[in-house]
Amino acid sequence: MSDSSLPPSLHTALKDLLGPAGLLTGTDDTASYCTDWRMLYQGRCAAVLRPASTEECAKAVALCAEHGVPMVPQGGNTSMVGGATPDDSGRAVIISTTRMNRIRHIDHGDLTMTVEAGVTLKAAQEAAAREGLMLPLSISSEGSADIGGVIATNAGGNNTVRYGNARELTLGLEVVLPDGNTLNLMRRLRKDNTGYPLRQLFVGAEGTLGLITTAIIQLQPSPRSRETALCAVQSPEQALALFAAFRKHDPSAVLAFEYMSGTSMNLVTTLIDNCTLPLSEPAPAYALVELASTRSDDSLRTLMESVLEQAFEEELISDAVLAESETQRQSLWMIREEHAEAQKRAGASVKNDVSVPLSAIPAFITEATQRCEALIPGIRVAPFGHIGDGNIHFNLVQPEGGDSQAFLSQDHAIMDTVAEIVRKYDGSFSAEHGVGQLKTYMMPSWRGGAELATMEKIKAALDPHNLMNPGKIFPAA
Amino acid sequence: MSDSSLPPSLHTALKDLLGPAGLLTGTDDTASYCTDWRMLYQGRCAAVLRPASTEECAKAVALCAEHGVPMVPQGGNTSMVGGATPDDSGRAVIISTTRMNRIRHIDHGDLTMTVEAGVTLKAAQEAAAREGLMLPLSISSEGSADIGGVIATNAGGNNTVRYGNARELTLGLEVVLPDGNTLNLMRRLRKDNTGYPLRQLFVGAEGTLGLITTAIIQLQPSPRSRETALCAVQSPEQALALFAAFRKHDPSAVLAFEYMSGTSMNLVTTLIDNCTLPLSEPAPAYALVELASTRSDDSLRTLMESVLEQAFEEELISDAVLAESETQRQSLWMIREEHAEAQKRAGASVKNDVSVPLSAIPAFITEATQRCEALIPGIRVAPFGHIGDGNIHFNLVQPEGGDSQAFLSQDHAIMDTVAEIVRKYDGSFSAEHGVGQLKTYMMPSWRGGAELATMEKIKAALDPHNLMNPGKIFPAA
After folding, report:
1. Which residues form the signal peptide (chains A, B) (predicted)?
2. Which stretches of A189-276 are DSSP H helices?
């Protein structure tokens, strides 16, 4: 007990409730929970609670609430914005969902999976795939990110263009509220208009209104065929026009449509082993398109080829390669997935996870590129991302051979420059990653007035003592 | 002024603000606004306000709020549950969105429509269709129901199985809050994780948290081909198995999948002119399936025929007719759309707009049918509806030649009987129609405990004086 700052009566009660495996108090044991994986934040905690069931979790939350102890829900700890890291007061407990990790049921009639919060997204995807079904949510951190966190942050990723974000896939939820009451919204219904859509409120609330313990996820039949192509384009305009061409022919066939700037692609092919450009020469930009269908006929190949042929004729694309095997398909995707790693190896970088309306993407990329290049000579403007749903990771890499610290000292100037153009096009300063603690300062100017005031009213109504994930989403008063 | 019970200072201020076209106070002028179209409720109001813009609406709401006058938002006045009708105190004003009726913009790049609340769903559908686009929400009342009401009640209808409810189609919203502040959530973004998803909260809140004035709707490319078939099946099990067969081959092709009981179909073919069964003989039940594709090839016909052929072989269906022309397609849909009218002509009926998980539909229909037939000898159990999304209109028609009043006197016994089985399968007592005033009494037993308590906290936080659509959703204290 000497190494815990928990009130003694709470410590005793939690130890009785959770047992040795469920309560970590020593600094050594809790240290890894107190830092985010990006190493942006170093917090402290009074303890890490690891309940093994909803019942244990609810009782633990009730005990903490009675003692006025703040609680920080944590899943796979993969937040990009410090959303699951406590502050450095050491007062808060972290509630880890790691031990709530059962896939309870997969239903072939309803196409649903009932799954506990601590199951990783990848484990859930694989369980669905073993049953011939698809969990159509795919993000870079899926090997570590867990279902609870994925839903609490309304994760997006590559397949949003076809299947929506985590929100659209979440049919049912079970949530432990800040006072320890359990909210059972575990209904597997496509239609249910019986009062406020509470389920929707917890998806994307980043754990500030309650802790998600279980979910029912909507699955889809696994695709029988996929067609994947990497295309060289001259500009973001052409990439968007290519997307529109596929969408016009069959929006339901487009599982993913990704954009990669030539600058970012160049970093991948030069800095990542075994990643070579499978096209005859480099281009100003690239589009990676994946079509998928559950039909057994081969019309998907026809669709891909006919759209690409027409795109050649209209000079929308200058080159393209189609995956002829699953291995080739994975190689094309590896090129896409290595952009973050390549940028990391290229030096310091400033990340902007932004979205704009689809139609504004070309103008946004062009203007933001020009402005950043004017701001810092030699800066490598390396955007990539999910152009099919309007989400660009507008990342800026330091000048080659330049000083990293000097570059990073201008991070606010860079972010403000990008943000100004995002704002001009009615976009979002955080498309996928959420607010966490990193972006709370942006809330007043972007979501201020009636919008932030309404959020604050909801927070105060459901968590009047500000005990659940404090310091996230809302700027310090 | 003599015929208005508005406080004089409020009356003057509203008259100045809204002008003669915007303020109705005489009983003759306001009467039609005070009754719901089902004639279940006869309310009274102090005035009908008809603002022509968001600005006028916001100012009018602020004035009413200052005077403590309750407000009832009203769109096309097509609620099935008295959701837009005032109580009989005469204290409330009705705020009609009728004059906010412009389609502001259709964007081909974003596939969006920016539309004011008072535009009817049908007018919005037609505007999209003229541009080669589809607004994929279709409900029986679409000729009168307006966009504001459709979103406020999270309308569903025939295409939910493919495109979701109004919620999934609503990209942006503008809402006047109970205090007269305007909440601008008019972003056209597929990804935007910047705080609580307020937009989601107003979809389905039935006007109790604010008044929707403008929306941005997600459109789709218009289908290039449709295939529609009416199939005879022996049971709900077979209808569901047929749906699963289509879903397995291509879930994205199924635009609608409707169920009709033989009893209900028999009412249509005997009581509605020009509605004959286009099959060789009557069956215990029917499925109407519509496939749609934006692809230009003819593979949709192949898909329809191959699934139906296999269904014949597996004896899932005993007969089927495919529409060979647009006229035939419309005839098949007319048969489906006339079920409500045929039931009306057959005498008194009790309606249950319920949903259960897809996999539970056959058991639900079978058990509920048996129980109702045991309850009232001769009762005509006539379910139909959107089986593809789990939503059945489980309607009961009085015994032929029996006494209507005697039948209706047992409406609670009938509804309770159906509800008990819905509850057994974790279903919803109101799939599409909402709670309104008609079903507030069901909220404590169905959504009680932490769920209703959380809803009440949100209501109190956003509308502390209970001025916005009072008496809806929440049971009287």
Report:
1. none
2. 198-202, 236-249, 262-271
